[in-house]
Amino acid sequence: MTVKAQQRPLSLKLLINGFIIVWFVLAAFPFLWTLWGSFKVELDFFSIADWTYALTGERTKAAHGSAFTDAGYYGSWVQEEFWKHAINTLIVCFFVVCTSLTIGTLGGYALSRSSYRYTVWLLIAALIFRAMPPITLVSGYLLPFFEWNVWGILPTTIIVLVAINQPFTLWMLHSFFQKIPKELDESAKVDGCSQFQAFRHVIIPVMWPGVITTGLFSFLLAYNDFAVTSMLLSEQNRTMVPEIAAYLGTTYTEGNVMFAVAAVVSATVPLFILVLFFQRQIVSGLTAGAVKG
Amino acid sequence: MQHRTFFWFFFPTAAAMLLFIALPIVSVFLQSVFAPHEAVLVEVESCTPLVGCTTETQVDHDATTELRSNQPLGRFVGLDIYLDRGHLAVNEIAAAWQATDSMGDFISKVHNLPLYRALSFTLTFTFLVTPLLIIFGLMIALAVNSLHRHLKGLMIFFSLLPMIVTPLIGSLILFWMVDSRGVVGSALVALAGDPDFSMKASTGLTWVMLIIYGVWHSAPFAFVVFYAGLQTLPQDQLESAMIDGATRWQRVKYVVIPHLMPLVTFVALIQLMDNFRVFEPIVGFNASAHATSLSWIIFNDLGGETRQLSAASASSVLTILGVAILLTPVLIRTWRDFNAKS
C-alpha cells in the first residue's frame, strides 16, 4: 500500500487533532485542576470573586503567606484522622486480592481442565452472579450479620468483597488457563504427579502474567467499592471511599470542603500510580473478554 | 479431570459464591415478603375510686420483645410490600388513573411515586448513556489510532483515568467543577448571563449532568475495546476497498465498522447492565432531589437510623428482575458461544 494514498487531507487531520485535544482536556483536566486546587483555600478553589484566583491563589496568599498551603491535607490526614481509613483500605485491599486470587486460581484452573458439561453451567451461574448489583445483596447480609454480631468489622467486609469478586476472577482466570497448553500438566501427570502436584510444579510457575492482570482488577473492585463498604463497616472501620462520602454530610456545614478535596486527591494518587505502571495489563484485561467473543 | 479432584479445586470459590451471593439473594426474597412485627398492644383497665374505670391501650414491651426474638423475620405479609406506595403503588396508580383526564396529568402523578421516579431516571440513564458512550468511544479509538506511536501511549494513559478512578471520587471531582462557584460552573453562569444559573437547580439539567458523567466514566472502556479491535483490522480488505475507489468514509462504514460489530455488541451488553445499577454519581453529585435510581432507593432505605430491611429487600428484588431482563441476551449469547466451541 502506498503511503501517499493513506495520507489524510488537511481538514481531516485538523478535525482528528482537535477532537483528540478536546478528549484529552475532558479526561485529564478535572484531575489536574483538583490536584492544583487542593493546595488552595476554599475561597480560591471555589472562586466566587474571580476564577483566576484558583490559579494564582490570592486568598491563599492572604491567609497562609504563600500561594500553596497544605492546610487541607493537614486537616484531613491529621485532624480528621484520614490515615486510619487509608490503613483500613490497605488491609481490605491486600486481603481481598490475596484471598480472591488464591481460591479463584484453584477454581479457574479446575474449570479450564475439566471437560464435563457442568463447567458450562458453573460459568453461566458465575455470569449471573456477576450481573447482580452488590447493593441488592446488602439487604440480605444485614439481618444475619447483626444476628451473629459480625457487622461492622473488617474481616466480614473482606469475605463479602472476595465473594462478590469471584465470578469475574473465575472468568478471567478460566480464559487465561485455557491458553496454557493442556499437554504441560498432562505430561506431568503421566510422570506420576497428582493433579495438585501438576498444578503446583508445572502451572504455577507459568501463570503469573494472568494472575497479575486479574489481581489488578480485584484490587480495583475492592478499592473502588462504595455500596458494600459503606453499609457493612462501622464508623471507625470505614475505608477511604465511604469516609469521603461521610465528609460530604459533615464538612459542608462546617465549611471544610478542602478536607474532602484533599482526601479525594489522596485517594486518587494510588490509582494514578497503578495506571502508570500497569497500563498494558489493564488494557489487556479489559479486552480479554471482548476480542475472543 | 476427575469429578472428585474437580470438586476439591472448585470447593472454596463455590462456597464463597453460594454463601455470600446465592444465599443473600434467597434471603432478600424472603425478607421482602415479611414485615417487622407491630408492637403487641394490651388493653389495661385501670379503676380509680370515685372516678370509675377506664380502659387504655398500652404497648406490652415484654411480649413484643419475645415475639420479635422468636420470629426475627417478622410477620408474613405476602406481596403487600411490593404493592405499597413506596414500590409498585397499585392503589395510587388506580386512583390517579380515575382522577385524571389527560395522559400528561396521569404521567406527572405517577412520576411523583418514588419507585416510578427512580425507574424513569434509571431507564433514561441506561438507554441514553450506553449508545452515547459507544459512539464517543469509537470516535476516540479512531482518532487515537491515527496518532503517532509515541503519543498513543500517553493518550491511552490519560483516557484510562476517568474509568479507573472510583466512581464516587470521579463524580465529586466533576461536581466541584460544575458547582456554581467552580470553574466550569462560573463559566456557565457567564454564558447563561444569569447569576443564579446552576446545574443543580433543575431536574433537566441535573439529568444532563449525570448523563455527561456517565459517558465520561464509561467511554474509556469502549475506547480500549475498540482500539484493540482496530489493531486486528483486515488490511487486505481495506486495500481492496481502496483499489475499488472507496472513499475514506466508505472504508470506515463498510470495512471498519462491520469488523468492530461483535465488539459493539459486547460493549453494549456489558454497559447496559452496568449503567442500570447507576448509584454513586447520585451520591457524589448530591442529586437525589432531582434524580434517584433503583440502587439509590435501596441505599436510602438501608441507611440512616431506621434500617428498613423489608422495603429495601422489595426494591432489591425488583432491581434483580430488571437486571435479569437485561441479562437474558448476554446469557443467550454465551450459551451459543459454548455450543459453537464444543
Automatic annotation (TrEMBL), chain A:
Membrane topology note: Multi-pass membrane protein
PROSITE patterns for the chain: ABC_TM1 (PS50928)
Pfam families membership: BPD_transp_1
GO biological process per UniProt: transmembrane transport
Cellular compartment(s): Cell membrane
Keywords: Cell membrane, Membrane, Transmembrane, Transmembrane helix, Transport
Main location: membrane
ABC transmembrane type-1 domain location: 86-277
Domain of life the protein comes from: Bacteria
Entry's Gene Ontology cellular component terms: plasma membrane
Sequence similarity: Belongs to the binding-protein-dependent transport system permease family.
PANTHER family hit by this protein: INNER MEMBRANE ABC TRANSPORTER PERMEASE PROTEIN YCJP (PTHR32243:SF18), MALTOSE TRANSPORT SYSTEM PERMEASE-RELATED (PTHR32243)
Protein name: Carbohydrate ABC transporter membrane protein 2, CUT1 family
